[in-house]
Design a protein that fits this description.
By secondary structure, the protein is an alpha+beta fold. Helices cover about 40% and strands about 15% of the residues. It contains 25 helices and 17 strands. The longest helix has 18 residues, at about 235-250. The radius of gyration is 24 Å and the shape is globular.
Length: about 600
Amino acid sequence: MCGIVGLADKSSLDFISRMNDLLHHRGPDDYGEFRDNDNGIALAMKRLSIIDLDGGKQPMTNEDKSLWVVCNGEIYNSPELRERLINKGHKFSTKNSDTEILLHLYEDKGVDMLEDLNGMFAFVIYDKKKKTLFGARDRIGIKPFYYTAKNGKFAFASELKSLLLLPWVSKDIDYTSLYHYISLQFIPSPDSIFCDIKKLSAGHFFVYSLSSRQISVKKYWELNVNNIVENRSKEEWKDVIKKKLKESVKRWTLSDVPIACSLSGGLDSSALVGILAESGIKDIRTYSLGFEANEERNYNELPLARKVSEKWGTKHHEVVLDSNRVLCDLENMVWHLDEPYGGGLPSWYIYKIISNDVKVALTGTGGDELFSNYGKYEIHEKPVLYKYSIALKKALKTRSFREVVDSFNFPSGHFYHSYFSDSFKDRVVFDNNKRHLVKVSTEKYIQEIWETSAAGDSRNAVAYTDFKLQLPEEFLLVTDRFSMAHSVEARTPFLDHTLVETVFTMPPFIRTGGNEQKSLFKETVMNLLPKELLNVPKKGFVLPLDIWIKKDLKNKIQDILSPSHVKNQRIFSTSICEKILKPHFSGKINYTQQIWTLFMFQLWHAKYCN
């Protein structure tokens, strides 16, 4: 695990060290640089040593030094790949480095190597003979990859902040991205918040030619939600899923250092702890989060996490939060997130305490998207009058009644809970001078993803959309940034692509649990869970924002979203205060999420644009 950066521009090579230094938190154990001054290429990395502690130094080269690679992530099937390549005559210089696998696999198969990789990764290979840079991001989007290609110059980095050091990269905001952010609370790829910077989408690769100075981006993997296998019983599916999950956990615990578990007290992370314990791993360390104030304790899952720890005898640690602690850390969180983000933040503290003990932690991220999607599909299985009532409630909150009319022709993407509809954004949020810069509708954008799935069932269409949108662009982004901010490698065994592909061959009604969300998965791992966990509704790691916004954050919010501040900024409408803040603080309307979304953007803007 590490941070990687690179440049293809002779005039900018001296920036490589500064770009690399900015990623020190991603890899405090080691660093390295490679420069080819003749061709104007520089690669660098900051390393968190997990596998082959002594021999895995990067940038790494092959025997004749015609190839150089930097990689962020882990290749979990590297032992099998290494054996296969050795049998074909390849000579390895390291003991067991998974990064070296990439060089020899590229020699063997070129860009087709991607189909052989199992893991989480973002890497770039410099091919001196072909004068190309070839890079890829893992299938699900667990590891990040930013790049910029402008006026014959090219650069890439694990985090956006490194690219902003380059004098030819502007800080002009992409207003289409901002428009999406206001509704989604995150920014979808391939765009970023800045016009000059792009994100390589999950399951994509690129080839950049040093001769033509052109980049080509292509997809190499697609989630197929239509390859349904009907000839298995529910009991057979349970056996298949448990077997695949155990295989995934075994692969994703490949490490030369100890491994811990982030334990929320929910089904997914608890199942991982049980599988680790059953596999014979000793001295398992678990970490959980709770809240201190009485009015915030409804958000806790600490008692359930303790039950899991007691069942398996783990070395258990707890983090208890209070609002002052979160407020003190907010600006640091915003810096590490890279882009505006309006979702939850608690995992910051889990990784902070994990970093005191270990470098690697398993997390249950992805389990919900595989098996229930929080029941998002249910809205599409309700009669028209139910949908109408939901739309009416939303309209009463936003004062936009267009959704009521649309509810009779219900948009497929409606399961994405947008706190700002397109019409509300246009009327209330954006400054008149900026609206013409917005070229898309967020609602249509989600609808297009839904339709791309070609799913005949809403349950699979919802899952496909989540795997393309919220999972990589929100949940995995936060997991990566907050874990790496504390030099911890977060691993997500539920997102092993072989497990994912198997799960989506299940009939959707069985996969999601029929009439009870996630019942199939619950029955599959029942013997791994304490009985108290079996009938408890999901809570998850969330912050009590409704309480904090009206108390601890109130003055800061009123200042940073005041008419005078917003007017000087010239991005949002000055009517935000009158139409959102005042009704909320007077108790007339609950605009908690809308205010939090705008507030977090303002914090980001102050950190990155001023």
